[in-house]
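Troubleshooting: if your tokenizer reports a length mismatch, compare against these two reference records.
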Amino acid sequence: MDFDGKVVKDYQVMGVPTTYFIDRDGIIRDRIFGGMNELVIEAKLEDLLKVAK
């Protein structure tokens, strides 16, 4: 539980669920608020992998 609000501030959480896409260096590359399905996850990963090349 984030009783002092530190996680909300640090990661800019706007709702639950919130999904983060974090690269190998620990940098947040994107986030999605709300639920997702497999197609959304695959599309997001595909986009991020294109940028990483």
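Reference record two:
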Amino acid sequence: MKKGKKHAELQKKAEIARLRKELAHTKGAIDSAQCNFEQALDPTMVDCYIYEWKAAQMRYQFLLKCVKQFEAS
């Protein structure tokens, strides 16, 4: 394998690893928002945790799509 191609492959693997780490972090944010939502009593906080939960889910979907694109290339 040529040096440039090997370097590009290493960069790709590093980026996939970074994205997977972000996925794990985002999964934790989803779980946290869900737990906080389930325990919230104040209507304002219920709304807050719904938005937090939805935002984390959207970020998770985006990161998952990025990982799939990198793995396919």
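Descriptive notes for reference record two:
- The mean pLDDT is 93.
- Helices lie at 3-39, 43-72.
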